[in-house]
Amino acid sequence: MKVKSVLAAALAAAAVVGMSACGSSGATNDDSTITFWHNSTAGDGKAYWEQVAKDFEAANPGVKVEIQAIQNEDFAGKIQTAMQDPSTGPDVFMALGGEKTQEMIDAGQLMDLTDKISDTVKTDMKTALKAATYDNKVYGVPVSVEPGGLWYSKDLFTKAGIADTPSTWEDLLKDATTLKDAGIAPIALGAKDAWPAAHWYYWIALRECSNSVYEKSVQDKDFSDQCWVTAGEKLEELNKLNVFNDGYLTTTAQQGANSSAGLLANHKAAMELMGAWEPGVVKDLTEDGKAMADLGFFAFPSIAGGQGEKGALMGGVTYFSVNATAGDNAVKFVNFIGEQKNQEAYAKAFSTIPASEPARAVVTDPALKQVLEYLDKAPSMQLWMDTELGTNVGNALNSAVVNMLSGNGTPEDIVKAMQDAGAKG
């Protein structure tokens, strides 16, 4: 699979309810203390990072890792604020990716790790590492690869009499209607958080726009091609079928049993469009706290007449960056995260695909194995569109999609919002 060098970590993996912290929140001049920020606030993910910190401390006597776990929806804002002054920001933290990471590089906030990453990371993550590479310099160590697609309840599909997953847009509309007629909420959507709703627009655009148009539009912030309006019209078509869960405009994405992920986890909705962090998220939201036994996956459908690259994926690579002011132990810590045994443990804890290619042998979840099959065949993987566009244009896009879904905007308004935000720089 070809992964673009511009591809950088997406909004990452999973995270669930609440916020917890221990220790100080900022960088320290004492290299014996590493301040570490991540977005896993509960469950196996939180426990994983606590264990990694303990293991690193044991292997490096005298070094202390102070962890701050921040809820996913709050993470970007908190890290951007903290890193305005790198001397008070965390030493190691989950990167934001795309244009957002580029902005931090330009501001001198991130350490160039090109000559500091271990041989293990260079070898085992040779493909995923491209996601953390900007202008041929490496600014992070990856932990997971997270293509997106549709996650669904096999039991609910069977209950509605649907034998095969949809491979075309028309099939998706038909199946969603069939589920609705069977009294089942077809699609879980956490539109309160904006980006989950906008994911539908990103994917439709990826199928409607040719690869060259898509990439040039995103790079130049020029969305004048008709495919961008058509993408909005397709999403509007889906919305008019009333196939999203009741109250989707006020539903969160990952926070508790009533979130969109929680609706899927507890069989109150049949499917959700998300990244490959989904199995780990729904596992923490089921009634018994166990993995969703009937969880399945299928790639976003093709669209008749669309010019998009066949089999192209959208997703991200989650990676961890180092503060430009941090010491040598912070670099040792990100290399430690990249070791195969820690990557294998990461894959198990988060129920996701590790960045380390040798570590992928531990992936046993049937749905994730399906994702790996699509990943291996994909000609390319674009970064989540809002992340690649950067904060200003990305936020404008996400908000405009929600406005249209709520009846306060049009497909043309989505394009205008992106154009206007892009023009402001």
Automatic annotation (TrEMBL):
What Pfam families does the record tag this protein with? SBP_bac_1 (PF01547)
Signal recorded as keyword: yes
Record's keyword terms, sorted: Signal
Return the InterPro entries for the record: Bact_solute-bd_prot1, SBP
Give the signal peptide, or none. 1-27
| PANTHER family per record | ARABINOSE-BINDING PROTEIN-RELATED, BLR3389 PROTEIN
Q: What is this protein called?
A: ABC transporter, solute-binding protein
Protein's organism: Bifidobacterium gallicum DSM 20093 = LMG 11596
